[in-house]
Amino acid sequence: MTLKCSDCGKLLSSIEMAEFHGVKSGHENFEETEEEVQQRSPEEIKAAIEAMKKKAEEKKKQQKALEQEENKKNFRILQKSNDETAEAKRQLQNQTRLREFQKMRQQKLEDQEQRKKILAEIEADKKKRAAATSSATKTASSTDAPATEKPSTSASPSTSATTKAASRGPPSSGRFSIRHQGQVCNLVIPAEQTLQDVAQQVSEKLHVPIPSAFTTTFPRATYKADVFERPISQLKDIFPSAVLLPSWQ
Ligand SMILES: [Zn+2]
Asked: Beta strands of 133-235 (E only): which ranges?
């Protein structure tokens, strides 16, 4: 029995073949026919196989070309996104660097300003002390001269000399500007006290643990535990005034 697919006209030699064709193609309408399913000659079969092979190869080639095109496209997309990421990264780096630079400059300006202020205070202090000394000397000599006789005049130069020596002596206190994370704390510490006392006050005023070291920027130096017990008046580079950065180890 021969069946013919009414949808595409294909001849099918059995019901099984028709079912198979129906499943494969989705065609549903079949009719009985008198036509014979043509047996193919070996040459025809060979040619059909060749044609099928050629078709498969063609398809493979197309697939490959498509794949390559797809790969290229994906690569371009990846490249572009890499470029964009790199550009964004660079911009971010530039911004960060700029911000750091501005922060540094700001800090430097503040340090300079602070230093100027401290120097001005010291200068004013010096002038005040000089004025006090000169008026003391004047009072001393004016009270000395008329009241005393010859033997005591020999004593007066020595007293004025000691007063002068005292005024030229080292300052009685150190002034320190402590910088920590944007906070500033100004301390006046008696000359005989130590960096340990400074550290103690920093801890109390800035509400931080007691620092274990201090650093200065001009000149660059670090003061650690080994000098913490020495009187600040012995630390020539930071006495009588300095900007100190506390640190903890
Ligand atoms: Zn069909």
From this structure: 173-180, 183-190, 213-216, 221-223
Lowest mean pLDDT among 40-54, 84-98, 107-121: 40-54
The reply to whether CATH 3.10.20.90 applies to domain 173-247 is: yes
Distance from Cα 45 to the centre of ligand 1, integer Å: 21
Residue 47 has pLDDT above 90, yes or no: no
Ligand 1 geometric centre to CA of 93 (Å): 67
Let me know: does 189 contact 172? Beta carbons within 8 Å: no
pLDDT band for position 2 (cuts 50, 70, 90): confident
What separation in Å is there between the alpha carbon of 52 and the centre of ligand 1? 19
Residue extents of the structural domains in the chain: 2-38, 173-247
Residue pointed to by tokens 């080292």: 170
Omega within 30 of 0 (cis) for the link into 219: yes
Gap between the Cα atoms of 84 and 64, Å rounded: 30
Query: 51 alpha carbon to ligand 1 midpoint, in Å?
Result: 21
Among 19-23, 118-122, 138-142, name the one with the lowest average pLDDT: 138-142
Which of 114, 95, 241, 107 minimizes the C-alpha distance to 182? 107
- Side by side, the strands of the sheet bearing 30-33 are 11-12, 2-5, 30-33
Ligand 1 centroid vs 18 CA: distance in angstroms? 8
Cα of 44 vs centre of ligand 1, distance in Å, is 21
**25 C-alpha to ligand 1 centroid (Å):** 6
Burial class (CB in 10 A: 0-12, 13-18, 19+), 121: middle
CB 170 within 8 A of CB 236: no
